Amino acid sequence: MFAFPLKVGDTPNDGGGSVDISWTPPVHHPTSWILVRREQGGTFAPVATVDGADSHYSDDSAQNGTSYEYQLVASPADPALDSEVSGPARSSVNLFDWSKLNVLVVAGIFFALLFWYIRKSEGGVKWVFRKIPGLDAIEEAVGRATEMGKGVLYVPGVQDIDDIQTIASMILLGRVARITAKYETPLDVPTNSPGVFTVAEEVVKSAYADAGRADVYRSDQVRYVTSEQFAYVAAVNGMMLRERPAANLLLGAFFAESLLLAETGHAVGAIQIAGTANVHQMPFFVVACDYTLIGEEYFAASALLSNDARLLGSLKATDSVKILMITVIIVGSILATFGQTWLGDFFATQ
Amino acid sequence: MKREIPILITLVSGLFMLLAWFVPHPTVRSAYEGLQNWAIVVVGFTYVLGVANLLRINVRQVSRKERDWPYKIVLLAGILVTMAVGFSEGNHYTDVDSRFQWIYRTFYSPMTATMFSLLAFFIASAAFRAFRIRSVEALLLAIAAFILMLGRVPLGAAIHPAIPAAADWLMEIPQNAAKRGILIGAALGVMATGIRVILGLEKTYGGGES
Asked: Closest chain A residue to B36 measured between Cα atoms?
């Protein structure tokens, strides 16, 4: 029997310290292999034991810049099954992860479009966007609460401040707080993370100051309740049942608590506007709330509410990339139908 | 300056984190992970502010005998007793037979389970409203839901083997297509929001006007 060869080389797209070894295992392979390694001119020493049927191993104990030779030794010992000694391989530090090139390309296109549309906006170009009923309803909901002499309950989701949905919720909270400050409508913001509480308090306080109504701001408007999911639900549901707010704004990242909150809000007769990017919670909000901002609508909401030309320009960039994505999906599907998978392969992330 | 400095920090750290994601070099990775650890430390400090706020609001409500004030005493007692027990047990607070774990198992777990189990009743009431057929869309929703529910129980297959297959088709094709469309849109929204925040176009989150 001939010894089989090993393919060795630097592990691609990593920070160094690793060599990839691959091989085609012989049909009659041993129970396991002992992978041995030596520096050029040195003696072999075992590195790892791998399963007899395996065909790949990454040696993560390599020193950058040192040349190694590898061999697979059969276990139990059978010299006839041992592999050839590989050629020299050395690990090195990579400066760019080429497996993420597709993401960089899309992000680059997105950035370029973003700056282009922002420049156009600053030049006075007006963009037109479709109406989102849920956004128009926010001011209506606050107005309704004002007329009824009741408050607005703003629930910013159950994720921490490092979640982009929570950040988007804080941006929306600023816009909502300005409206409630203008109408002098009570606004309550129970939070489930101290990080969110700290930011939300600053956002609401500043919004009241910006609206010239710092005198109306109450220090207990924004409060930290608990970081436990269902304890938070119990507290917020209790607030809904006791205070009976006229409007509930459920904007953020929600999980199993979404329907518990929305159904309680429905039971107390509040007008409810929800927004989330968590796909699995959207059906619950659609059923139980009056308006739901779905996915991208939720992220676009702050820009649309602000009417700021530069922010609207960023929305136009999002729309353009979406058209590009749809085009790529259609072209990729047609190419794949004819056996050409290179476009799909380029955009594969895993 | 109060608003410019946070925006500058956001810009620098945001752009660094964005670019570092593409660079596997150990020095860059180390700084990338270091910044993430800083975030954890900062969040840790906010717990002090959060608990202080919780105590301040509830103590005030009790002292003024505001509505439902006896319940606030229960809340305050719960926080203080649990904290005291946790601190007194030091590193052993996670031991199975610790008093802290006893509090967790005896009070917290049953209450959480109770809240979660309410979901079954809320789903029933929400489904009842959702499946009232008042439009063509509601009719389609009701038909899809009927097929799906029937296809997911043994009765569906007993009636006709095509019912579970139809339920699977609904989940695999139309449901997946809609879901992926929403996800692509949301992902682009995430990018746009992130870039707006990093570039300082959106300042509201830091307490400033856009």
From this structure: A162
